[in-house]
């Protein structure tokens, strides 16, 4: 009997490095220039620079990669380093490597709507070693209001004529179908589809990427992944802290929208409702919670409700996909059996587990709920999962768009939700109040039950890593 010893972090990155560098489209010896447009902003400071440092530290980037920051602010590389330092998570032993990373960094200030600034930026790149032949990656860590000017100026003045060019676009990709289509049309007038990378960091998370293998790599799931066996699918995104959103309750759409109010018995922020925030307009109908029910009209999923739940100021932090299967026919156990569920926990504590019935241990013959559990921290104890941004930025270097949002996918998402969003904006109905730290409005649970989801609330998965 052989045992598999978990790979160390360096071995994991070694395997990944080999996999990447064996790719025909990935040339380690090529010069690459990574542009951070919006280098002075929070996203750059908290996510982009740290991610590039981690990739550089672990030897995953091509040997000759240079980083060029661009923003309106009058900054220096030293100032950028100082503002990023606490997010870099660098140890004392990595000081030399960190200095090597920042020696590859430069910064140019300029205006986003000024062609001359981008001419200057391009001249700077040409002065870097191999800059004229380099492949160029442009990360738009910017507000959408400047996307049009920045992308136009990149296209006119900063594209490589000898290497490839790739543009990474951050969310939001518009605010409704029309604005999204306008942005897509603008981008496609400047770049080809294979040059555009619409980044959604959730697509870089371990368990989201694992869905493909779970679905298509297992015989036990393939035959039952359809309307014959699945009663409903629930996608949940819950956060325990408060913020703002949109608002109301629409029977026509099967949608419940709510707004959190303070819990008088809570502590700290829990005592405050959304409307207690001094920056929120008095009487605002913005919602902080939504449950929507959608149906897919095709042969595989016809009639199966897809329940989307998301909200702020709820009882826990959780992002997961839950397939609830139909009841066992015959019911020889006198209604003691609960429905089977397959749960993919995206965060926190990445896991896949199947809720199933088993005989309760002992002299009794009673069924009880338990689970078959694959919790990553228990099964893969010594493996450090890459950050989602690490994964996705590596994909851009490699030219893989598998985990990025396509234009037709984006169009379909906005087509579905735009009518609802416009009705909310036009009618501004009063949202349903729910208490800070609760599960959300009870009307949302009522809706889920009405369309076929069975919530017993008697069994809760326990992370074995904490036992």
TrEMBL record:
InterPro entries linked to this entry: G6P_DH (IPR001282), G6P_DH_AS (IPR019796), G6P_DH_C (IPR022675), G6P_DH_NAD-bd (IPR022674), NAD(P)-bd_dom_sf (IPR036291)
Keywords assigned: Carbohydrate metabolism, Glucose metabolism, NADP, Oxidoreductase
Residue ranges of domain Glucose-6-phosphate dehydrogenase NAD-binding in the record: 36-210
PROSITE patterns linked to this entry: G6P_DEHYDROGENASE (PS00069)
Sequence ranges assigned to domain Glucose-6-phosphate dehydrogenase C-terminal in this UniProt record: 212-253, 255-455
Example GO BP: glucose metabolic process
Catalytic activity: D-glucose 6-phosphate + NADP(+) = 6-phospho-D-glucono-1,5-lactone + NADPH + H(+)
Enzyme class label: oxidoreductase
Pathway: Carbohydrate degradation; pentose phosphate pathway; D-ribulose 5-phosphate from D-glucose 6-phosphate (oxidative stage): step 1/3
A Pfam family this chain is assigned to: G6PD_C
MF annotations from Gene Ontology: glucose-6-phosphate dehydrogenase activity; NADP binding
Domain of life where this protein originates: Eukaryota
Entry GO CC: cytosol
Documented EC number(s): 1.1.1.49
Chain segments annotated as transmembrane: none
Homology family: Belongs to the glucose-6-phosphate dehydrogenase family.
PANTHER family named among the record's database cross-references: GLUCOSE-6-PHOSPHATE 1-DEHYDROGENASE, GLUCOSE-6-PHOSPHATE 1-DEHYDROGENASE G6PD
Name of this chain's protein: glucose-6-phosphate dehydrogenase (NADP(+))
The species this protein was found in: Cynoglossus semilaevis
């Amino acid at each position: 009997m052989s045992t598999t010893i978990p790979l160390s972090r360096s071995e994991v990155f070694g395997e990944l490095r080999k996999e990447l560098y064996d790719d025909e489209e990935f040339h380690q010896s090529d010069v690459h220039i990574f542009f951070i447009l919006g280098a002075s902003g929070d996203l750059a400071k908290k996510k982009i620079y740290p991610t590039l440092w981690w990739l550089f530290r672990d030897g995953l980037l091509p040997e000759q990669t240079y980083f060029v920051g661009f923003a309106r602010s009058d900054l220096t590389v030293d100032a950028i380093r100082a503002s990023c330092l606490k997010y870099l998570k660098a140890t004392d032993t990595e000081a030399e490597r960190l200095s090597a990373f920042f020696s590859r960094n430069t910064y140019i200030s300029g205006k986003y709507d000024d062609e001359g600034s981008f001419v200057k930026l391009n001249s700077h790149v040409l002065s870097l070693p191999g800059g004229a032949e380099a492949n160029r990656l442009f990360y738009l860590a910017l507000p959408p209001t400047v996307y049009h000017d920045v992308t136009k100026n990149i296209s006119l003045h900063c594209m490589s004529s000898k290497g490839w060019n790739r543009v990474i676009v951050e969310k939001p990709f518009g605010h409704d179908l029309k604005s999204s289509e306008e942005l897509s049309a603008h981008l496609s007038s400047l770049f080809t589809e294979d040059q555009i990378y619409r980044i959604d960091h959730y697509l870089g998370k371990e368990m989201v990427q694992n869905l493909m293998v779970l679905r298509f790599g297992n015989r036990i799931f393939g035959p039952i992944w359809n309307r014959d066996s699945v009663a409903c699918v629930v996608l949940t995104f819950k956060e325990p802290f408060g913020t703002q959103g949109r608002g109301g309750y629409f029977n026509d759409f099967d949608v419940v929208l709510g707004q959190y109010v303070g819990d008088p018995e809570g502590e700290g922020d829990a005592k405050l409702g959304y409307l207690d925030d001094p920056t929120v307009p008095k009487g605002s109908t913005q919602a902080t919670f939504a449950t929507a029910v959608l149906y897919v009209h095709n042969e595989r999923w016809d009639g199966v409700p897809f329940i989307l739940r998301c909200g702020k100021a709820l009882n826990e932090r959780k992002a997961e996909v839950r397939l609830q299967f139909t009841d066992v026919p015959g019911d020889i156990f006198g209604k003691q059996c609960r429905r089977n569920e397959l749960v993919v926990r995206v965060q926190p504590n990445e896991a896949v587990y199947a809720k199933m019935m088993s005989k309760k241990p002992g002299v009794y013959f009673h069924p009880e709920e338990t689970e078959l559990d694959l919790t990553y921290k228990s099964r893969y104890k010594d493996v450090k999962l890459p950050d989602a941004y690490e994964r996705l930025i590596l994909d851009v270097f490699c030219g893989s768009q598998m985990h990025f949002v396509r234009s037709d996918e984006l169009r379909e998402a906005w087509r579905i939700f735009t009518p609802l969003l416009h009705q909310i904006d036009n009618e501004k109905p009063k949202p349903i109040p729910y208490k800070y730290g609760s599960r959300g409005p009870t009307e949302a649970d009522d809706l889920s039950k009405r369309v076929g989801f069975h919530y017993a609330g008697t069994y809760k998965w326990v992370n074995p890593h904490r036992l």
